[in-house]
Amino acid sequence: MSVFDVDAYENDVNVNAVKADINMLFPLANKTINHAKREPIDIKKGIKYSYRFYVDGVKIYSSQIKQLLIDYKLNENPICDLSMYSQSHLR
Question: What's the structural domain count of the chain?
Fold first, then answer.
C-alpha cells in the first residue's frame, strides 16, 4: 500500500482531483484509492484541511513516490506534502 498526505489551507481539497493525480502516477496498476479526512483546524495560515490517501495494490518505496511526484510535476502543487517522503521521515 502507498500513502499520500495532502494538506490545503483555506480551501478544502478536491478529493477527485487528487485521486486523478494519483492514478496518473500508477497508470497500469489495478488499484483502489481510499482516503481519510482529519478534522479541519485553524492555524496561522488559515483553516488547514488534511487528508491521507491510501492506494491498495501498489508496492513502492516512499523515495520512489517522491521521484514520481517530481517527474509528473505534482510537486508544483502546493497541497502535496513532499516532506513525507524525505530521508528523515523514512527512518
Answer: 1
> Tell me, what's the pLDDT at 14?
92
Tracing cell 485553524 back to the chain, one arrives at 42
Query: Cα separation of 66 and 83, whole Å?
Result: 9
The domain in which residue 61 lies consists of 2-90
According to DSSP, the β-strands at 41-43 and 32-37 are unpaired
SS3 sequence, 2-66?
EEEEEEEECCCCCHHHHHHHHHHHCCCCCCEEEEEECCCEEECCEEEEEEEEEEECCCCCHHHHH
Instruction: Tell me the per-residue pLDDT of 32-54, one tens digit each, with 9 for 90 and over.
Output: 899 999 999 999 889 999 999 98
pTM of the model: 0.78
The predicted structure's pLDDT at residue 83: 62
